[in-house]
Amino acid sequence: MQHKKKKQARQKAHILKNTAFMLGCALKSAPLSLFIIYFSYIAENVYYAVVINVMFLETALSVIEGNGTFREFAIRMCIIVLGKILVDLIGYIDVYTVRIKFEIKCESYINSLIFKKAQEVELGCYENPEFFDKYNRATWVVDKSGFKRIIEGSAWTIGSLVSLVLLVVYLVSIDPFLLVFLLCPIVVIAFRVFKNNMELEKEKEMTPYERQKDYIRRTILLKDFAKEIKTTNIFVVIEKRFRRAIEKNIAVIKKYGWKIAILECVSDYFAEIIPVTGGFIYGCYRLMVVGDIPISEFSVLVSAITTCRNKLNQLAYYFAMQQKHCLWVQNLREFLEYEPKIQSGDITPEEFSSLEFKNVSFRYKDDGDYIVKNVSFKIEKGQTIAVVGHNGAGKTTLSKLIMRFYDVTEGEILYNGINIKEYKLLEYREKFASVFQDYRVFAMTVSENVLTEEVTDENRETAVKALKMAGAYEKIGRLPNKENSLLTKEFDSEGVLLSGGETQKVTIARLFARNFDVAILDEPSSALDPVAESKMYDALIEGTKGKTVIYISHRLSSATRADNILVFNKGVLSENGTHTELMENGGEYCEMFTLQASGYKEVCEDEE
Q: Mapping DSSP to helix (H, G, I), strand (E, B) and coil, where does residue 378 land?
């Protein structure tokens, strides 16, 4: 019981804090629009609840009964008409101009916060399903118009409260006993909050299955998977997964559905039947038995009670909805308040002179297996280093540790003799240029993809030069718009679709477009044929003179160009030396190189 009370207290606090957070965002992004929206909702609520349902009705009935003067009637009608014109004018301005701009500005502000935080969180967060689910729910504030709903809900709540207070004051002036019939709708808030908690639990349980369904829908439509889907039976597996996710969602709905339905039924009973019926019977008793109120006052009394009932029901509804939407905001706030584990240091890195691994071990999970085990080596300025080994040997993990996408579990990595944790993170990463194994191009122009920044007159030639060095301009130069051609057909049917090899050349061109100290290339030639690979390495040697280059490759022919070769086996640095030294040792590298060389020789003999 105590735990339940604490949970309810936390939920109330969440509603207040999260609503305050969203109001703070609105004040920062569109303060004038926020004021107009609030004023519009308050004016509309007061006008229809008090002016129309009480003042207008009372005026009309007083005329029928022959009470009052024409002058009083005319003044009241003028107030009512002018109020209607003012409320409608504010409403039209709000709906057709203010609210549209308000939503755009606020969503833009929230998106900017999300985008900024997404850049700060470490890579491991995206590989954590629990964190990724929370990140998806955080975006609901924008994707499902949660921002708009919370602001409008809070504005409507304030408007309803103001009009409710005025109605209650009026009813108490007639008979304080009438307050008894207005207490029942308050019970509705408790029922609807309880119901809303169940709906939120239902949505949480459905989130993983919804994510599976979204993934499958995207997979079916993506070009990257089209060939495999059309030429294999994988579609049957995908479809079964999709149906299984639907069945899981149906099971969750069944689990909560009947409970939610009962709570809704009970809350409607307290919200609708008791207040109206009780208030009407009591009014009839005063009119017919006691005889101390006229028909006009009885009519206005019933109307005021009905309006109060409606307002209390609306408050219960908006409170429940506010709670639901505020839990979306809670996910957003938790995401924005997340403190990345990879923290920036205070030192500005100097020009590169050395990089050293000292007894470095790493595992992705605290209870997981080590991916890298007790690795030590040193790279000097100007060296070309090849990192080789079988799949799963820990080669790619090595590049992630150098770039500080992850921090080491044990040991340390030194840049110029100083632990890399001591350096300013962004400035440290700027010392490196990377080409990743899972390379991607963006739905932007070729130049923007190469420069990874806005194209200007000053840097335009840099993009062209980089494309030529990467061997990509031969293809790009033949396009109608050359380096200004838009890649992919995501936003333009005239967009260019490059082959895997040409795409990889464009990503390699990013390397030549940057001013860097160290280049890290993870399988940079995976999509290139042997001739293109050889040309790429020639260009790499030419374009990185005086620079340090670390490349990870399973093609050992490229390792012959390296000053030093690091051979990894199951996370352990098993061999270290030049190509000649390792071949003379006759160890693991020699065995791998001999096997690959014999494979190339057989292919050449077959072609002859």
A: strand
